[in-house]
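Collaborator request, handled under Task 6.
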Amino acid sequence: MNKLCIFAGTMIFGVLGSMLAGAFGMDTFSLGSFLLSGVGSVIGVYVGWKVAQHYK
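Structure tokens returned to the collaborator:
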């Protein structure tokens, strides 16, 4: 359950970070898009871990 929640959080928040970069007018393969996607993924790991701890 722990790994599944972390995986889902990473994917969801990574995509949201990439979409946020697109909203700011950055290209898909730009450094800003890569960084925002990475930050979103790190946040997703934390959120997924907290969700897994809540349901444990």
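The cover message to the collaborator said: "Helices lie at 2-23, 31-54. The chain has a mean pLDDT of 94. Please let us know whether this matches your experimental observations."
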